[in-house]
Amino acid sequence: MGVGLESEGIRPSVRFVRRSIHSHITGLGLDAHGRARRVGGGLVGQEEAREAAGVIVQLIKEGKLGGRGILIVGPPGTGKTAIAIAIARELGEDTPFVALDGSEIAGSPRKTEVLLQALRRAMGVKVREERAVIEGVVTDIKYVKRQSPFHPYPVIGGARISLETKDDSASYTVGPEIAEQLLALNVRKGDVIVIDVETGAVRKLGKAKGRGERRYDIEVEKEIEIPGGQVKKRKEFVRILSLHDIDMSVAARRVAFSGLLALLETEREIGDEDRRHSNEIVKKMLDEGRAELVPGVMFIDDAHMLDLECYSFLTRAMESDFAPIIVMATNRGITKIRGTDIESPHGMPRDLLDRLLVITTRPYTAEEIREIIRIRADEEDVPLSDEALEALTKIGLERSLRYSVQLLEPARVIASRRGSPKVEEVDVSEAARLFADLKKSIETIERYKELMIY
Ligand SMILES: Nc1ncnc2c1ncn2[C@@H]1O[C@H](COP(=O)(O)OP(=O)(O)OP(=O)(O)O)[C@@H](O)[C@H]1O
Ligand SMILES: [Mg+2]
């Protein structure tokens, strides 16, 4: 994944972007009963929204939320995006999570294509495959060197390797392709490895518990149990692909068959025909019990930026067999649906709203703001005096949490210019004087209207 996403007008998932301002968030911070701890997972307060999100996570994991959507609503800076990110963290790596921004989609000339592609990226297919493998802990390994006619020094001609499980042992002579991988992976006695018999691909799983000598004071390799059963066996592998991955390979194959010229012209464009084809492939695998669907999440931040065309597309998409869970966030109340004169809650059409479960976030108390700033300061390694923390809390209450969090870094720079490793109240005031929040910057524009360029 990840290759060429930008060129297709799609931003990679939230795991890679926005790491900075939400990097302190590791989860929803719920206990075993789904109750929100006051502070947990990097989140503070907002208990109802976090608990609701916890229910959503469970429904997603149980696969019971397909075709529905979630809307997170609340004033600016109340943690809507933060909660969406916490949902992604809770779901873990195996559930696809794709994040988009309403403004980006709206600005794209191929809005519905961008949406469709994101939907398919957010739809996982868990594929089970049984393969013949050789697996066990290495008890002996010897490389066979041979004189090459092309090199003055000997090259790897193969290897003799002995493997053992709890119940079995066997030795194999392998060719240079496998021997070179063993060498590259630095496979030694005591390592647990698996070799795919058909492809010859070698993987090192870790170091067997209680086997082999301790090599370093600090071992970074994972210690694992010695496998049981036969050395040579059939083993099940599970991979999660997205529908988009399958679309890409279908399109690539079509392009390969239609020759080089087509390759240059189409640049791997995925067509309707390709998508139909990959749906068929997936349906067939589902019928045969070789795969199962893993609906992931498509998150659209600032969803009020979308227009009617996007909304009806999403509403229709929710009805499809292969729909992920759509999570949206907005800070708008009653407003016009973009591009129309129709007023509607959150600027969204009614038939879409009818399909959404709504989670609301509320403004923070001083207590909560103080705690959030403390966590952020810790995350950014900005040491704060008590007075500085109070000043930032006040700014967070009066202006916005976002603004006060944003002042942390400038305040640190200002403090270090004074030669102080710690941020004091004066540094916070100085940062607030130098940097405007939104209200102030709008006032400035109003005041100097005739001088500004629009
Ligand atoms: N409950 C919370 N606990 C910890 N950090 C939080 C919490 N809520 C918000 N934050 C942090 O505060 C900042 C602003 O929050 P966020 O961007 O999630 O607000 P938002 O509701 O999405 O705002 P907007 O409507 O402007 O998009 C971020 O750095 C976020 O990580
Ligand atoms: Mg947001």
Describe this structure in words.
- The chain is built from 17 helices and 17 strands.
- Strands 5, 6, 7, 8, 9, 10, 11 and 12 form an 8-stranded mixed β-sheet that branches. A 5-stranded parallel β-sheet has the order 4-13-14-3-17, sandwiched between helices. Strands 1-2 form a two-stranded antiparallel sheet.
- A hairpin with a 5-residue loop joins strand 8 and strand 9.
- The protein is globular.
- The N terminus is likely disordered.
- The two termini are 40 Å apart.
- It has 3 domains: 179 residues, P-loop containing nucleotide triphosphate hydrolases (Rossmann fold, 3-Layer(aba) Sandwich), CATH 3.40.50.300; 110 residues, OB fold (Dihydrolipoamide Acetyltransferase, E2P) (Beta Barrel), CATH 2.40.50; 80 residues, Helicase, Ruva Protein, domain 3 (Orthogonal Bundle), CATH 1.10.8.60.
- It has 454 residues and is an alpha/beta fold.
- 38% of the residues lie in helices and 24% in strands.
- Helix 2 packs parallel to helix 3.
- The protein binds adenosine-5'-triphosphate (ATP) and magnesium ion.
- Adenosine-5'-triphosphate (ATP) binds next to helix 1, strand 2, helix 3, helix 12 and helix 14.
- The site of magnesium ion has 4 residues, from helix 3.
